[in-house]
Amino acid sequence: MRKTRWGAVVVATAAVTAVTAGCGTGTAATPTGAAAAPARPTEQQIAALFPQWNAALATGDPQRVADLYAPDAVLLPTVSNEVRRSRAEIVDYFTKFLQSKPQGVIENEIVDVLDADTAVNTGVYEFMLTKDGKTERVRARYTYVYELREGKWLIVNHHSSVMPEG
Predict the structure, then answer these.
(1) 41, 119 in Cβ contact below 8 A?
(2) Residues in domain Calcium/calmodulin-dependent protein kinase II association-domain (predicted)?
(3) In the Cβ-directed half-sphere of 129, how many Cα atoms lie within 13 Å?
(4) CATH number where 134 lies
């Protein structure tokens, strides 16, 4: 079970949605003329974005990985000292990083759904990297900040740094 500061709010929102979905009108009850508030994503929906990113890594295609980032995203990568601020810079990083055939596994994650359009996934992950036929394990802290843009969850900020104790 993932822990968040917003868990109770997400559960309450889901319960209201479930109740109003069965009321026969097909719309949530709102004051006359008021638009229904957009539904907040669940913790599970946000957590599922990492496996999508990891699957993009497995394709070996840096363009495919970069497609998961917003055009104005910032990447503070694990194995580079360079801050990446554009799609071209993000593609450049992943072109090099993907040569090591990375496979990531989350060890510990905390998902915070901030609102209907913004969420954060932070924690610790481990990557298996292959260099010169040898496999190396790299544990790192990470933070992904996601925004819902034009119906698609995109990474707007991604920070990853090697754990100080290894």
Answers:
(1) yes
(2) 43-164
(3) 16
(4) 3.10.450.50
